[in-house]
């Protein structure tokens, strides 16, 4: 497996169980697939956690952390107190191009993404507010682009050694082989 640095975790704020199941699940799946080490959600939603656990079980990376926290602010405070860097992804922040070099040399990183409006507290109490372009789009795209840029595309070659299933890439059609139990 490729060794990716820095270590990145994703904190999802503002999840609304009646509206955000799919998007929040996608934030977590993108984080896992593109090399992050864990997904933390403020609040709880068993259906999101179940979907991610199912993917881990079949496709590997069983050590990918999936955690629910009651209070996102406290999590960020503790994270920073323990030496981690907190990065809020927001279209109002500083452009990723100007920050990515500096961020590559720091670890672990906590990426914070919202659902609707993110409280002002986060803008003031993180190490960086980083924009993935200055247009409104999506938390899923923001996490994906951030990980791709920080890992410079190496995350696309990840193979998880504890996977039960592996894809044999095809020009056309699908081939999936069972590699573990
Ligand atoms: C659907 S957007 C919500 C935007 C919301 N209207 C606001 O004012 O924050 C959900 C999340 O996607 C992320 N996001 C959207 N566009 C972004 C951008 N251009 N750069 C970085 N993150 C972005 C942010 O983390 C945001 O909280």
UniProtKB/TrEMBL annotation:
InterPro entries in the record: Alpha/beta_knot_MTases, tRNA_m1G_MTases_N, tRNA_mtfrase_aTrm56
Keyword Heme: no
GO cellular component, one term: cytoplasm
Complexes and interactors: Homodimer.
Gene Ontology molecular-function annotations: tRNA (cytidine(56)-2'-O)-methyltransferase activity
Identification of the protein by name: tRNA (cytidine(56)-2'-O)-methyltransferase
Principal EC category: transferase
Similarity comment: family membership: Belongs to the aTrm56 family.
Keywords of the record: Cytoplasm, Methyltransferase, S-adenosyl-L-methionine, Transferase, tRNA processing
HAMAP family named in the record: tRNA_methyltr_aTrm56
A Gene Ontology biological process term: tRNA nucleoside ribose methylation
Protein function: Specifically catalyzes the AdoMet-dependent 2'-O-ribose methylation of cytidine at position 56 in tRNAs.
Keyword S-adenosyl-L-methionine: yes
Domain of life: Archaea
Enzyme Commission code(s) on record: 2.1.1.206
Subcellular location: Cytoplasm
Primary subcellular site in the record, as a coarse category: cytoplasm
Catalyzed reaction equations: cytidine(56) in tRNA + S-adenosyl-L-methionine = 2'-O-methylcytidine(56) in tRNA + S-adenosyl-L-homocysteine + H(+)
Residue numbers binding S-adenosyl-L-methionine: 89, 114-118
């Amino acid at each position: 497996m490729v060794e990716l640095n820095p270590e990145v975790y994703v904190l999802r704020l503002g999840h609304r169980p009646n509206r955000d199941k799919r998007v929040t699940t996608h934030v977590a799946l993108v984080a896992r697939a593109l090399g992050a080490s864990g997904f933390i959600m403020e609040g709880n939603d068993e259906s999101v956690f179940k979907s991610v656990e199912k993917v881990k079980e079949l496709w590997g990376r069983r050590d990918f952390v999936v955690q629910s926290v009651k209070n996102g602010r406290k999590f960020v405070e503790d994270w920073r107190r323990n030496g981690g860097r907190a990065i809020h992804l927001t279209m109002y922040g500083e452009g990723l191009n100007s920050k990515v070099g500096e961020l590559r040399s720091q670890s672990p990183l906590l990426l914070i993404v919202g659902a609707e409006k993110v409280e002002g507290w986060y803008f003031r109490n993180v190490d960086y507010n980083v924009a993935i372009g200055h247009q409104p789009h999506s938390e899923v795209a923001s996490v994906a682009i951030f990980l791709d840029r920080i890992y410079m595309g190496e995350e696309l070659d990840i193979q998880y050694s504890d996977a039960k299933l592996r894809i044999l890439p095809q020009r056309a059609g699908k081939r999936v082989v069972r590699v573990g139990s």
